[in-house]
Records
---
Amino acid sequence: MQLKKEIVSILQRFTTETIDDSMIEIPVYTHLGDYALPCFPFAKKLRQSPILIAQELAAIIQDESIEKTEAVNGYVNIFMKRKSFALSLLTTLQKQGKQYGSSNVGAGGIVSIDMSSPNIAKPFSMGHLRSTVIGNSIALLHEKSGYQPVKINHLGDWGTQFGKLLVAYRLWGSEKKVREAPIETLLALYVRFHEEAKIDDSLNDKGRAAFKSLEDGDTEALALWEWFRTESLKEFQRIYDLLGVSYDSFQGEAYYNDKMDSIVEELHERNLLVASDGALVVDVGEHLPPCLIKKSDGATLYATRDITAAIHRKHTYHFVKSLYVVGNEQSLHFEQLKIVLNKMGYAWSDAIQHIPFGLILKDGKKLSTRKGKIILLEEVLKEAILLAEKTIEEKNPQLINKKEVAKSVGVGAVIFSDLKQHRKHDIEFDLKKMLQTEGETGPYVQYTFARACSILRKAPAQIAFEVKDVNDYEWELIKALKQFPSVVLRATAEYDPSILAKYAVHLAQSFNSFYGNVQIMNDSKHLSYRIGLVQSVVIVLEESLRLLGIKAPTEM
């Protein structure tokens, strides 16, 4: 049970006022207690001052887990019994191990997660990092909370852009160059198309016509498209391997080509389609633009495919939640999607949730494949790994498996720098800050974990521990460890890995304060208890990093 809920259950016995666990605060200063209940929300109803309410409540609260309570300026400050609290927590952690923090909140329900979704024939840029790592962590958090995640890489392998690419390849392409450097060459062709189209607008018409021929099954166009797709997947897989991310499905937009006609027909039968300038749309309300289903030339759109995909996923997975980890700029699209599905009579449309995130910016500007302004993720990861390897060579040249550790640290630094930010915020790309090994970074948390592991390697075989007393440094660490289950649940419920990333930093800081101020190995009286505390930190830090999609090297 979450600790705040435990505190609430105790307090609720002594008052008829409803107490919510969100009301329980953790004081900044330890002399003000371990937990505090502000009584201001009760003042209006009870017609008493918060100070008097706090005094009356503090005087009657008694529980075997509470050392004392006191009333201070309208707050009930609660001091826990440190020894019994610590013994209970550490016993639980030793018993549960990596299962600590797991729950059955999801009751086995399936959650489909649409994530990553890079476009074929384009390089995997930093712009796709966010959807990939946020989606992966959300999947791991849901699994920890008792759900069954299904990770879907909805590849951008269809649409007008491929018509443009076909035109560009036919006009300026070289088979030899594409075979030698497929993604680099195709990107150059795509960028050239948009530069040339600024001068000759007829190229855009040709691009639309080429995509229509692709939709109509033109043999030569399909062969080129399949070639571009195959080469792209090879590059993507190399990057996913580096990130340690896997998928349950690679069904992209093209997968739904032969399934859309029946959906369009269903929309027609339900009298939802309206003709508009030769196109077919669905009215989604006066406050939103209509949802475009078919263009005047008969070509389908993102909405058509996403409606089809949503229905197919519901029939395939029977999900309880369907998450779309897609950028902020697509909010309107998903609002329209849910309304159309609801109009079609699918009550489960409420289970669809857009998980938006901000952009990665460079010098304050959006990265753009179209303009050729991109930062290649693979290059960033490789540079991060090389820098980590150089640092290890300088500080710990005798380390075994240096290259493997450098990979874990370098890739972990890139992932952590993204996930520690709230997902809705834009992030300015700064490789130097991303790779810092001090402060609130992935390498800092990893190094703390490795430090704790090094203590355990020197420690004697652990026996049952006894808690004789708990000093302030140990107490702060114990309280941080106790927070982990509630942090997991909150990060899962809010679809926000930054909650967990910030917690991991806090736990690492608490441990390093404990490490720097407490004799762990040279105090026989407290040795077994303190070793048990270090073991608990190892369990929770490793699990925190795992849920963020980051490896935890035992040596650095």
---
Amino acid sequence: MTAAAHTTPSPHPDAGPEHWLSTRPRLVVASAFMLFLELALIRWTGSNIVHLSYFTNFVLLGSFLGIGLGFLRVGRTARQPYYSPITLAVLVLVVTFFPVTVDRQTEGVLYWTSLSTAGPPAWLILPVVFAAAAVVLMGPAELVGRCFPELDRLEAYRYDLIGSLTGIGLFTALSFLSAPPVVWGVITAAAYAVLLRPRRLWARAALVVPSLVVVAALAAETLTAGALWSPYYKVTRTHFAEQGVEMMDIQVNGIPHQRAVPAVKRLEWERQYALPYERSAAGRLDDVLIVGAGSGTDVAIALSKGAGRVDAVEIDPKLRELGGTYHPDRPYDDPRVATHVTDGRAFLEQTDRKYDLILFALPDSLTLVSGASSLRLESYLFTREAMEAARDRLKPGGTFSMYNYYRESWLVDRLASTVQAAFGHKPCVDVVTQAGQQAVITAGLAAADQACGQEWAGATAQTPPPSGDDRPFLYLKDRTIPEIYVITLILILIVSLLAVRAVAGPYTRMRPYADLFLLGVAFLLLETKSVTGFALLFGTTWVVNAIVFAGVLVAVLAAVEVTRRFRTPPLPVMYGVLLAGLVLAWLVPNSWLLGLPVPLRAVVAVAVAFLPIFAANVVFAKRFADSADGTTAFGANLLGAMVGGCLEYLALVIGYQGLLIVAGLLYLGAFALLPRTARAA
């Protein structure tokens, strides 16, 4: 069946008259709204449900399921999807009244959600969020899918991509402006009103009431919590006095994160803050680098110790802003301090300055990089390669030190082993308190440059090996996928199978598009590899992530435009180009890319990463253009992307580079399932 022959369903009595927007602008608006809503859900739910700080993929997978179901639902009904705003309102109310936060008595580093929480348990709230995200996103996806039969296949896909880029751009702009969620809610309500065009009284009620609930709840949160919305967190602060000392407590996403305390009191109360200076044999502090400067206490301590210059690196602009405004010592006002709002690993790789002391000051982001399974904002800061980068930035006689509440003795030993591997000698390890494993790890450029109170005993058979840039999972002790992830992913797949059957009917409807399903699985793995690769090369900042996601969509759009306007090679040839691109990406090591100047690194990284992405989307575009049922074909591809989101967790075992092999096998499977007519065309 050709695109022209694919007919739209007859109008349902409740569907109303033709939409006032023509197909193309309606498709752009619906696609932009779909992606904007997905990003907003990931961002907002993660700020109120602490489990989602470590399961960002959970909402993403629910979104993919809902989008796929929305496309498969096209043609089965002409009713407007008012279930979407209603479900969104219910979700917002549930999360607002039953947030999952950390017990205020709990301190330390949080990982794998092993923490004391207040609110519904993970087994209850996570399925609710997953199912709600799927239903919410199914509505906009259905509206997008209804536009596809009215246009040529690739033209519809083209406008869908333009809309997606618009949605990313809008959300990125709001992140830059630190807009609170009430702004997201207003935009969401407006988009529903434009797209659903309610005319009957009951339809207006089904839209207006949920929209008011969402906007009111988000407005109340914005006004009562007094939160600042950084690109990474919901940041709240409280001011209090302890022993006559004015201090500020900072929480991010409901998790106790930092305290702005005068340097003299911090040194008096907690010994770990003084140890890096005591363990430095040279004692020079002409140049100091602090990674994880936060609200400024570590900077204030360095200044009190006589630092001549301090480079303060902090990834979150709002934490730096709070420190500059409220820290009692006003360290950021000191002319000796230079602030750098960027990723710590990226700064180490890009700076030419040398330091007498490099300090990793409790860098613990408490959140994951959105769209990349188990990659935290600071993951690339604790690999062997990162320690080597820190070593290379030290002056002769310089010292490197890190401290935190590590919670597990094996984690202290792993980090000490990593430092030993990078520096070539055992570091000093001071376990300040056994409770919470509060520890300081210090290494001089040479063994003579450190003054240990007691040298580290060394690694044992139970000490996990150092983490590396390919598997930067510091908090994962063994090379395995944690049981909580395995169970969760299996349940997600079971629910997805049942949902597809209930919404879309028999699976035989999608059987002709099995290759497009595998293309979706493989592409998500390819996208994950690109996102994590660029995070390593240029930083895990929100700006880099936004640029990479937008770049992927631009590459997809370029593939569509090339396919529409030019005669492209047959599918077997394009599959060959795709596999060659995967081999090239496998052969080019990150260590070589990191050694290039930043401008050249960007050019080479883009060429290596986006060649297979471009080729994969030429393959998809050619196959999609000839599909008999465009909405079903696209839905199958999106459901494949959801399965790919589950398979991302294989990186915990095989590393991110290994995902290229899995993607290659999936693309070979897609080629094997390619219909003979498409292969011969």
---
Amino acid sequence: MSEYQYPINDILFSLLCVAHIERLTPYLEDEVDSDLLDAILGEAGKLSEQVIAPINASGDKDGSRVEQGDVIEAKGFKEAFKAYSEGGWIGLSGDPKYGGQGLPSYIATAVNEGVQAANLSFSLCPLLSLGAIEAISLHASDELKNLYLPKMLAGEWAGTMNLTESAAGSDLAAISCKAMPDGDVFRIKGQKIFITWGDHQMSDNIIHLVLARLPNAPEGVKGISLFIVPKFILNEQGEPSERNDVQVVSVEHKMGIHASPTCVMSFGDKEGAVGYLVGRENEGIKAMFTMMNNARQGVGLQGLAISERAYQQALGYAKERKQGMNASRTERAAIIEHPDVLRMLMTMKSQIDAMRSLVYVAAVENDLSHLSTGEQQKQSIARTALYTPIVKGWITEQAQEITSLAIQVHGGMGFIEETGVAQHARDARILPIYEGTNGIQAIDLIGRKLHSDKGEAMTSLLAEIEGELVQWQESTFSSQVEKVRVVLVQAQKATQYCLLAMEKNPILGTGLAYSYMMLMGYLIGAWLQLRALDACHRGQCKLDETQKRSWEHSVAFYCDHLLSRSSSHFLSIEHGQSSVEELDENSFIR
């Protein structure tokens, strides 16, 4: 099994030459120079490679378990979390007022790529903590911030997100968990399912963010409030003391991410779990979506990370495995010499390059949405909103193909668990499901993002793409520019089709949503691949000739072999509305 190597050169290239992190410089008090960025990512690479990656396979095998009402995590995870916390990694982009380092969040994204690729199960704990930190930072009272944020940013306390209930699923309007006022606090009663890292022994406290209904709250999502419910109630000194009325009922037995305890949580079996209101009453969805959107971009990053891990393992195996003869039939060949294996490897690599570019472009745009002001901030907020469902949806769909191809490159050995490559496919399978299924991401894109502003933000994005294509039309890669231009025209037409469909009937219009999301993913991926190629040709980033040639092959393969997939999605949009309208449950009778 090949060892994971943190792809620092690819990450730096994406940040510097594609995402253009210098756009943030006017809004930063202290500029992040290349030496600082190199140093941070170099240390992050060591943590991922040397501390977190070695417990990935053992964690998959051992999993977690419940003993006397407590979840016991896989061997080595507590020590790894301690190293992660003591290194200050969780507080990289946190508010310095509460002990954070105040760095742009794109740096945390780059660090987290390594952590997630090294060990997806492990990475989910800090991912949920980061989302909880952001929700508390933006919506909680100063008193709650002062109590919880310093310990959470230090990694001493972890965080979770408690939305789902067995009778509600993704329909948050149907949740039934109750919150009863009790003096200065609330008593929370109800059960939540699918709670990632709902319990463990890696931190001194776990801060649950829980959605629940107050008495006489309005029906639906307008009647949901958000509460902090700590595992241990704090004493007057702000330290964990008595155990709150929160219990783990069970840990789910899952297809993948075995070392990440997915818990059924019970709140208030006795007197009621003590909770503290975050934000205003009945505005919990607004606060929770802060955490959810953070997590959605984080899940897209997981799709990239697990794809990179699978690709590295497939590439290493292809270089070592001897089978068949070389082209001249003079000696046995490593399978990387076989054209079909080269096809699979480049299918993986070219998509990963496009996925990584999108992740970091979206991360920088997200930073701009928080740090900039005026018109720039308005535009960045709208652009981040557009990118988020595509980052989560399109990238995690690609991860299914890439991790499957990694098994295929291994042949029969890929189907054997001892090889380790099957774990990546099993782990990746959850990504299109959680934090809102990819169908929900697509509906979010076509509904909340496209339809709500009549296509204004999307039109702006398409205009930016068109502007850059014009700049490159006389370049040495003009033939690839023309291929992307064809897809741009498809996307412009598809945008109008979708707007008309949503105007006609928003429910039926969502039948076009998935194809629209995938079309936009392929287009944006191609656009950013060309931007990377332009940077190579202009010598904007320090690449040697071998690295440059690698990028040229990646972009050419993407435009020649993968971009054409957009046409099927466009045709589904162009002709799909009438067929969707005609479907009903009788369409499936045999």
